[in-house]
Amino acid sequence: MIIICPSCKRQHKIDETRLSDKVKAAKCIYCGHKFPIPRQQDGPAQVQDLEAKTDRKTRRIAVSLSKGGVGKTTTAVNLAAGLALAGYKVLLVDTDTQGQAAYMLGVKPKAGLTELMTGEVIPQDCMVEARERLSLLAGGKSLAGVKRLIARKDFRSEMMLTEALSPFDSHFDFVILDTSPGWDVLTINVLFYVKEVLTPVSLEVMAIQGLLEFCRSLASVQTYHKDLSLRYVVPTFMDKRVKQSEEILSQLESHFNSRLCPPVRYNVRLSEAPGHGQTIYEYAPGSPGAKDYRELVRKVCGNDKLWR
Predict the structure, then answer these.
(1) Which residue, of 57, 197, 226, 250, has the greatest Cβ tally within 10 A?
(2) Quick check: is 25 in a domain?
(3) How far is CA 81 from CA 130, 160, 204, 303, in A?
């Protein structure tokens, strides 16, 4: 149930099943105003539905790999920003406790994914508009508590994220989810929510081992989630001066074929951009990093003529 504070007009999400008959009033977390809680017999005057659904078909893509240091957040942020620049409406969801997506975009959200999943704040107030057509559900340290909440749930714990993100269904063209390194309950929730997985993999031996292990873990989820597929493999930190990079890229080409995306070259501008709170398109639009991520956007969109 959604109720509206009569003082500041902000909306609050309340789980009616957890309310006893003795609870008669609520306190607004924004303005502190106390007001009576409307019950079903009081009529629907203060109860509002979430935004009306549209006919938009949303593509859900997880940027994920168990190994860290392969450029997951850089890829998620610049893919989401690139899609927004291409005219698509995009939601970027940061499921990492480090919360680096907000830092990279230069925004400081007051609420994010934690507040959405715990029901403390209504969905619309959890998001921040980071750029035109690009909204962000921020991560951060508080997600550690969400992981404990998921772990304690007895039934369908793998669907908690799907239930939390359901209000956004059909309101975005793309939902891009950045995941943390490792394999935990929140990553599993992400994989049950999405239908497509994009895996960045740095061109080094240990990253390839991590990719193979991730593919095995992914297969275990696919047993129960038949629509899930590894759609894109993105080689990162490509350096033609290093012989090993070419060798590993060749191995990836033979194994993943059409799923392999053009590599993202090693580029110092990609590491500098977050310090300025900018995407690579804003910080260094003519750099190799910007060109490579534009190519990735073309691949994901299936539009080779984009920006040509």
Answers:
(1) 197
(2) yes
(3) 9, 26, 27, 16
Residues for the chain: how many in total? 308
* 3-class SS string, 17-34: HHCCCCCCEEECCCCCCE
Regarding whether 10 and 118 lie in a shared domain, the answer is no
Say whether 252 sits in a helix, a strand or coil: helix
Cα 30–Cα 35–Cα 36 angle in degrees, nearest 5:
140
Q: Is the domain of 265 the same as that of 209?
A: yes
| Pairing mode of beta strands 128-131, 134-137 | antiparallel
Return the closest-CA partner of residue 227 out of 69, 83, 62: 62
**From CA 123, how far away is CA 120, in angstroms rounded?**
9
The structure tokens 């620049």 sit at 85
Identify any residues that bridge with 126 across adjacent strands, giving them in sequence order.
Answer: none
pLDDT, one tens digit per residue, over 83-124 is 999 999 999 999 999 999 999 999 999 999 999 999 888 888
Domain that holds residue 264: 59-301
Same domain? 36 vs 168:
no
User: What is the DSSP-derived secondary structure letter of residue 260?
Assistant: B
DSSP 263: P
β-strands 2-4, 11-13: how paired?
Answer: antiparallel
Any idea what the CATH number is for the domain that residue 233 is in? 3.40.50.300
> Per-residue pLDDT for 47 more than 50?
no
